[in-house]
Specification:
seven-stranded antiparallel sheet; 130 residues; Pnp Oxidase, Chain A; single chain; 19% helix; 3 helices
Length: 130
């Protein structure tokens, strides 16, 4: 049996346990676009996909249809960073797709009744910044 190698560090999960702003950066053919959500809205799957409920995010979806790469930043001042710094944050890079039906969509819809789609992010890199 192969064990899935974990990419997301424990400190990342610690940050998710505290509320904070998440910024999602996408870019298609034009200027980069930024949209925000909350730490508490991120759901991490067993295989470490990041699922984000989407209500609006229409420009992000248009960009993902042209270029599926994203950058995400998040953090919390409640989690100690490097060298006992009060607070830490992460920059995540990944690829994205939108889910509009199926098992994952239904699971997320139960948690977040407002969503119209689910942004599914496959993490390609994660870096702790502070």
């Amino acid at each position: 049996m192969n064990k899935i190698e974990k990419l997301l560090p424990q400190k990342f999960y610690d940050v998710l346990n505290h509320e904070g702003v998440v910024s999602i950066v996408s870019w298609g053919e034009g200027e980069p676009h930024v949209v925000n959500t909350w730490n508490s809205y991120l759901v991490i799957t067993e295989d470490e996909h990041i699922l984000i409920p989407a209500y609006g995010m229409r420009k992000t979806e248009k960009n993902v249809n042209v270029n599926n790469r994203l950058k995400i930043t998040l953090g919390s001042k409640e989690v100690m960073g490097f060298n006992d710094y009060q607070g830490t944050g992460f920059i995540i890079e990944g690829t994205a797709a939108y889910i509009e039906s199926g098992e994952t969509y239904n699971m997320m819809k139960e948690k977040f009744s407002f969503l119209t789609r689910v942004l599914d992010v496959t993490v390609t890199s994660i870096k702790q910044k502070i």
